[in-house]
Fold this protein.
Amino acid sequence: MTPSQSTAPNAMKTTSLTLTLALALVAGCASSVRYDDPGKVETINIDFGSTDLQQLAGSMTESMSSAQQLNYYEKEGDDKRIVVYSAGVENRTSEHIDTGGIVDSIRVALLKSGKFRLAATQQGQDELAEQVRFQQGSGRVDPEQAKAFGRQLGADMVLVGKLRSIEKSRPRNIEDAGGKVDDVYYQFVMELVDVTTGETIWAEQKELRKTMKTSLFGR
């Protein structure tokens, strides 16, 4: 066997190994996408996430739907359901949180409960006003079918809320084996205010706390 013949198998093995490693590297760098359960607890990081939104909205909806004090609200007419206008949730945290998502989840749940009627949101009111003006002034809509101002549903109560947070961190230290600890506390408060009297008829508070521990070699 000549030297060139003896080195040929080794060269083939080296080439095969190199190709295998290259394919493994490419596979390791590739991204993958899959669907998951929306109700699954999310713990990717300590920031406000989907699980927090679901817990806050769920607790407020449950409390409001079962509040005994709302049963004493006197209302004229056969339909005794309270008409609620949602004014929004003020974000007083240091994070950029779309609190509209919390409000939307609460509105959907309240409507599904059958115990409340919902007045249009500010966005809905703006769109309604534009549509009424179009029907009244464009000349394109049958006058007998054109809607007019002054017939919209009036809210009995306004739903308002505030979301606050307190954030603290402990730097890396020997007691935590060189790791660090981050902690965030959320306080979510909502209330229903009587439009006529200005009285707060219902109020509820929900608290959340999350802690993240980062090891010595973590970021």
Residues 38-74+81-119+154-219 form a domain with the Rossmann fold fold (CATH 3.40.50.10610). The CA atoms of residues 156 and 194 lie 6 Å apart. Helices lie at 3-29, 50-65, 100-113, 122-137.
